[in-house]
Design goal:
This protein is mainly beta and 76 residues long. The protein has a domain at 34-69. The protein is 0% helix and 33% strand. The strands form 2 sheets. It has a 3-stranded mixed beta sheet with strand order 3-5-4, with no helix packed on it. It has a two-stranded antiparallel sheet with strand order 1-2. Strand 4 and strand 5 form a beta hairpin. The protein is elongated, with a radius of gyration of 23 Å.
């Protein structure tokens, strides 16, 4: 982390440069794939699948079945 600050005589502060971590210069979308993300199991994916967190495997898994979700549709 780099921070450079210059204070003028009037009491105002001007920030010249702030760097946090290492910036990502370029991401290649052709090399980005959900199948390669740690903690995501897409082995059961089919058309229409969604990712659901499974506590027993500690992963998000592709599934068509939603059996533990609570959906609140609001009031009409």
């Amino acid at each position: 982390m780099t921070t450079r600050i210059q204070t003028t005589s009037r009491g105002t502060t001007k920030v010249k440069k702030v760097t946090v971590g290492r910036p990502v210069k370029r991401i290649d979308p052709a090399r980005t794939d959900i199948d390669n993300v740690i903690g995501v199991d897409t082995s059961g994916k089919t058309d229409g699948s969604v990712l659901v967190y499974n506590t027993s495997s500690d992963n998000f898994e592709a599934t068509l079945t939603l059996d533990k979700q609570l959906v609140n549709g609001g009031q009409y």
